[in-house]
Design a protein that fits this description.
Rossmann fold; alpha/beta; seven-stranded mixed β-sheet; 2 domains; 12 helices; globular; four-stranded parallel β-sheet
Amino acid sequence: MKKFVSLLLVMLLVLSLVSFASAEEKKKVGIAMPTQSLERWNRDGAYLKEQFEAAGYEAILCYSDNKNDQQVNDIDNLLSQGVDLLIICAIDGDGLNTVMDRAAEEGVPVISYDRLIGNDAVSYYVSFDNYTVGTLQGKFVESALDLANAGDKTYNIEFTAGDPADNNAGYFFNGAYDVLKGYIEAGTLKVVSGQTEFQQVATAQWSTDTALARAQNILASYYADGTVLDAWLCSNDSTAAGVAQAIESDYAGDNAVIVTGQDGDIANLRNIVDGKQTMTVYKNVANEATVTLEVAKGILSGAAIDESLIANFGGIECAFDTTSYFTSEGHFTPSFLLVPTVVTKDNLQYLVDTGLYQWDGEYLIAK
């Protein structure tokens, strides 16, 4: 009996030591998101935390209220807590140099999430193909207006782009504008306000209210005389919400105006059903979190991070790119770029099929 008790005590001691070692070996991941004021980032943060914790990591999630100084402090705090890896969606891609330098000094790898950070401490970039997002918006307008067959007919269009501090905003705008600029130069498309430069149409912090105020001003200044507005190309859903509101309240025309967007925000999906917005470019952020997790696992385990990693993504369509994105001149960042999808009223079921949305009567809600 004594031998049995002694053996049991030894086994319990061994199990205790194994459990202690496992706890000691548990990796800690810091996740820094820009704000909770936009639906998009709440979803990203939740998916990332959920997936990392399910994979056995300790995940610390923080939001920085769209304030760069606060994000710097938040990341500093994450580093002080001894994180093994940082996942950062930057508020200002050029405003994090001090904490990025600290991460590099401490040997903490950084995954730049969705928005590229302009610092060489970034190890990898995980995002969607941002130029393609804009291209899809531009091609949608091109097809909806049948611009290739317009002949002498002309159409009027306006643009609303994103936050100048967001590296992605320029890619979105340029992707769309590059599709449409030939029609603008030919006179098939006319920008009545004359505002065609990114800085003229940019929207600080992707603010719905800022987009609304600018759209109201343009409508009052250039369309109050009955000039027809055919399309308004918006780079994302939060700005599209402001533009759609302005069109509803301040545009006197009775024609349906094409309004583009991006992200698949619930309010915008409702607007698509109601005909206030025409399309959105949907980016499956659960898939983006999955890809980020696999890249992080590779980094923390010392595995090779290259195109071969895509086999671990569970069939998620993604490209490995080493030439499109750079953090400084000549310093290209290895990037995993997911493929976005155009969603309109006709294919809303696609979102249900992802398992992330469900029908609530005639509208979609998140699960």
